[in-house]
């Protein structure tokens, strides 16, 4: 059919050889006028002197350049080239090139290690990668008129050719895509990253062309972007097959998509799924986390309005008086029974979970304008994750929380944590929690959100690499056990039983029935290294669009701090940014080491992480505190507000600020 998978796979590097060959020969020695004249040339093979070799002796320099170029292209025996150069009889060289460029299979075979060998393994494509790279690098140095016809270059004049190449690749059967993904993963980062960048640029320029006249009408090339997205998906799959990945997952983000109608894309995806109707949401790896947050926020707002409207209609249809409280998820809790009250309220009001959250503390006057909601999250998370509560343990080596076996049978409270995480994302609240990445990987497994609330999630395979994120010492020990070449039973003298300290008491657990009596041997040691993560029913609003890393950022924020950005976006109440106290403050803060900067952020906002939108999304405010300068700074974490007395010297401000942010455990509630 003239389409070999081998050709399509490596045409990314070698595409344009056909046209490049024509142009190069024409430019250097006029060996062949055009490939379109192959038939006429074939008829004249008996008289090679009739070919375009005028004044060969006068163009020796050009021939040497041409032969250097040819030598990179196809593995023709060098002795044939030397003979042709010395005798002037180029028929052998001519026949070789004419045959090679006459068909896709022949062209592909020129780049194979063995022209007769098969390429039916994912580990070996059968391609001479060094030769392909040499050809590609040679193409980069060809004249512009050659590059114009090569779809591997960024010139928009090549995009029509490039688009057809992408469509051919995208239309391959699934089995061929499987081969491609595994072959692409073997590319070096130097070769892999430009492929991704070129595809992203292709999509961006098709969406927002600088010169629309350079492209066909969108009605005639509506398949361009879908084809490019499918090929990007192959590269993304290849990237995920390698550990560590060839490039960061964020390198697949296309910031151009931040400027399109994301909600239209999302609604198209909701309506048609992954059917024939294209949506960028089918390829969420190209959508930035900032854009995904916008989709989630707008979808949340629309659902809140829709559900509130439906509640109002239901009330009116039953001829009942409407109540404004029916428009919200109203949480009434006692501070003294925070966890139990919250669990009861969320259980009773499951149907209202997608309404706007509103919190009231029993016995306290106050209207929740967002501050009480944030305080409820802060207090509840602080209590649930406290070691004395027994639900989670904190591992200092990995700086993260993990599930305690003490309450491993209390599914309702673990479900509460899942609901809190979903509500936090739904209501744009950043939580001060630390789970390892494998937790979010399990949270998104299976990758499709179940419609049945009782369907368990978190069912996915894990390895010692995942365990290393939580308990690195234990993971190291298990890895040594697995790789030990001696007699495991005699040297380790271990059984399928583990010991764990809980509240000062050492408890034993069997990893399998009768595990305390089963010795670990070379034959069964893999069973000893299988460990179970949580299988609890985490109810969540987290979406299929997200990667585990992105879920973590949405829930907990980013650890990357930019204090200069915070300075630029800070608002002032009672101060001006030019006031001496404010200048002292920023001089001190910008000079802080990272740990003190994190303490300041935690002191003022309740978390040392930054929301998806960056520091500007914190709405950080510094207010003047008209008190004695002997007082320490005060923070209202519910409003991201720092109350700063008018300290008279930088030294005094620095001293008081460090004391305040370093001794801020607990909540000072009036």
TrEMBL record:
Q: Domain HECT: where?
A: 349-670
Which residues are annotated as active site? 638 (glycyl thioester intermediate)
Q: In which pathway does it act?
A: Protein modification; protein ubiquitination
Kindly indicate whether the keyword Transferase belongs to this entry. Answer: yes
Kindly give the Pfam families that the UniProt entry links to this protein: HECT
**Which GO MF terms are attached to this record?**
ubiquitin protein ligase activity
User: Which CDD domains would you find in this protein's record?
Assistant: HECTc
Please provide the Gene Ontology terms (biological process) for this protein: protein polyubiquitination
Q: Which reaction does it catalyse?
A: S-ubiquitinyl-[E2 ubiquitin-conjugating enzyme]-L-cysteine + [acceptor protein]-L-lysine = [E2 ubiquitin-conjugating enzyme]-L-cysteine + N(6)-ubiquitinyl-[acceptor protein]-L-lysine
Give the main EC class.
transferase
Q: What is its EC number?
A: 2.3.2.26
UniProt keyword terms in alphabetical order:
Phosphoprotein, Transferase, Ubl conjugation pathway
Q: Does the keyword Zinc apply?
A: no
Per the entry, what this protein does is: E3 ubiquitin-protein ligase which accepts ubiquitin from an E2 ubiquitin-conjugating enzyme in the form of a thioester and then directly transfers the ubiquitin to targeted substrates.
Protein name, per record: Probable E3 ubiquitin-protein ligase HECTD2
Name its species. Capra hircus
| Source lineage | Eukaryota, Metazoa, Chordata, Craniata, Vertebrata
